[in-house]
């Protein structure tokens, strides 16, 4: 952080590689809060990712990016929320979805909990496009709740949504490597990141017939008919672990910068 940083947002310990909330004690969290009001909350999804992609792709990737951002910035990261809004993927076995209203309540409750301890800058690292609308709705609802709670600092409570796969750096790189074979679901970029994180997934990769073209999303039965094997216009066979490492670095560096800017913002 530069010298103009607000004292309340000074970073706790940039040399500590272990900024995982689950490993902190409460007195340590209290101490951290005296120096930094920021926290990272990763959210994924547990849903089909085509015939060769892991069900946990969106949670694995959100967690990895969030942990890397925590390491680089010294900001605490919470445990990863592995379930998201994946209603349209329910036609494929293994998918576990929260209804939008459930996810909204869940995110709302987590935000309100954090605000009660004095966290003011919540940075959500999201791995799934289907969560975006609901997470934004949860922000609006949490602002209202926290304001109604009458806390004198309610005005300083701010949430930011960071979709790692949509950062311009990652998006551009994915288009450059995969062109229109990047598609919109079970994309080679997200599969590449999982191959980097979990080498055992390499054994599942194989050549696939061309995917159904990208189109609309309705209910889960329609989705299964329209996108026969779960992919939307993508060719995940193009993914390599080496590219995955590059995507992790690009996402983490872009989001670390976004987070530090967010902490500085009034
Ligand atoms: Ni995904």
| CATH architecture label name | 3-Layer(aba) Sandwich
Under CATH, the homologous superfamily reads Creatininase
Low-confidence stretches: 1-8
Mean pLDDT: 94
In this entry the ligands are:
nickel (II) ion
Q: How many helical elements?
A: 8
Query: What would you call the structural class?
Result: alpha/beta
Number of distinct beta strands: 4
The amount of beta strand, in percent, is 5-15%
CATH topology-level fold name: Rossmann fold
Using the coordinates above, name the CATH class. Answer: Alpha Beta
Write structural notes for this entry.
The protein is α/β, with parallel strands linked by helices and 266 residues long. It has a single domain, classed as Rossmann fold, CATH 3.40.50. Helices cover 43% and strands 8% of the residues. The chain contains 8 helices and 4 strands; from the N terminus they run αβαβαβαβαααα. It has helices spanning 26-35, 57-73, 100-117, 132-148, 168-178, 188-197, 220-226, 241-264; strands spanning 38-43, 76-77, 121-126, 158-163. It has a 4-stranded parallel β-sheet with strand order 2-1-3-4, with helices on both faces. β3, α4 (132-148) and β4 form a beta-alpha-beta unit. α3 packs across α4 (132-148). The longest helix has 24 residues, at 241-264. The chain starts with 25 loop residues before the first helix and ends with a helix. The model is unreliable at 1-8 (pLDDT under 50). Bound molecules: nickel (II) ion. The site of nickel (II) ion has 5 residues, from α2. The site of nickel (II) ion (NI) has 5 residues, from α2.
